[in-house]
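Minutes, project check-in
Item: structure for the 525-residue chain
Input as provided by the requester:
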Amino acid sequence: MAIVAGVDFGTLSVRVTLLDSERGRLSTASAEYPLKRKREDPDYATQSPSDQMDALVKATRAALSVAGIKGEDVEAIALDTTGSSVIPVGANLEPLDDYYLWCDHRAKEEAQQITALAHAEKLEAIEWCGGVYSHEWGFAKLLHWLRHNPEKRGQFVTAFEHCDMVAATLAGIFDARAVKRSICAMGHKWLWNPRWGGLPPQEFFSKVDPLFDGIREKFDGEYLTSDRIAGHLSPKWAEALGLKAGIPIPVGAFDAHWDAIGAGCREGDVVNVVGTSTCIIAMERKTTLVPGVCGVVPGSVHPQYTGVEAGLSATGDIFEAIARRAGTKVAELSNGLESYRAGQTGLLRLSWDNGDRTVLVNSELGGVTLGWNLIHTAQDELFAAIEGTALHTRIILERMAEHNVPVDRVINAGGIPQNNKVLNHVYANVLNKPVLVPAGIPTSLGSGIFALLAAGAFSSVEEAQASMCLSYATYEPEPRAAAVYDRLFKHYRGLYFALGSKSAEPVALGAVLPELKKIAAEVQA
């Protein structure tokens, strides 16, 4: 028997779950931290490392209190985080700035430059991240920071992903080269892959910008999967957290990847981790490159599989924005949505309010809603937004299937599906597949599974999943609704590529609005 702590750093809060290898979940507690935004710069999004660590202490102690156990009984602690959430550090791992959070989109120009040069140089790495390097990813954000903080360049030693920085901090590591870097984080967001010897050659980085001279050496160190140990809890942080010193900390990962493990992901599954944004996670024994899909990395989700990541840049954020503009809350605006039927609003909504993560990887896009009339309501738009995120998800899953990534089961995980039955019904109908939803919150369960492995309680991910993962509620597609969404998807797909790409072939769009009206009239008849 072993008791462990699984930690999940989300966009606005950290969640700590205590798991018993025999009894399952003992307790869960969370603590919030602020997200720093600027109204004059909507692309700006940062967080303070000290705020996050203070919240971790608060949530860990609360979880211990709720469970009624002593901290000395906890045998391991594992951490997942958002990503790419990047922090530049100086000597002794001293933060030089706040984290550039995953949703900080200031590095658009830098990402475009990296992408263009990678194609000009025929850099193999660019094909492994779908052909486009994203403004959400590490090197683009680091280059933006270097360009805009000239007074701090002399102090710069290296940069870390949040999951690696937190593990190193808790382990009391002060030498940057001694920090174990996550293959999950570095493979999906930093162009790392053992196939080409780790990171791309220094010559490539120097051609991107001379500010990157010597950057490859600054990222020297071990790159490991999450079945390996990043360090052991230091006395300082053991005292702060109320745990015992010396317990193992496995190499961390991104929250969505471990959420997929906590949701029971196996080969052939696609897990939609639906929260503020959506991360779509799959894993496969073979390795398949998929154009527009933002990461194919051996060992990233499961140490013995190749992880595949895609997603939407905004989902819950869109719902929140619609409610905010209407002067209400999402929960209140959702009352009555269960009576809505497929296509009844006559609206078709493209979910680009925060750009497109997959498959266009285009940060310059904006949300589009077609079909407005004078009596549409905010609730109509909310339902159309749920439909739109599901239709966008279908674009992604079809792209994956076209390139032989198995899509046998669909699991809706993350924070939203457990509280939004309407969303799950819509997804089942749009995808025309049963959608499985964990019967409980799987967030931080994945990190708990890797903590249990580090504690020696289980011998494999699969053994831990069989013991720890939740049962499912199943949402079956309804034939009539699925047929309506097939009609809508034809128009959604045409609009998605026609409006989303500057190089798109001309598409006749004159039939879209009449068809939306026709579908709405038929549904309401």
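Outcome recorded: Residues 80 and 255 are 5 Å apart (CA to CA).
No further action items on this chain.
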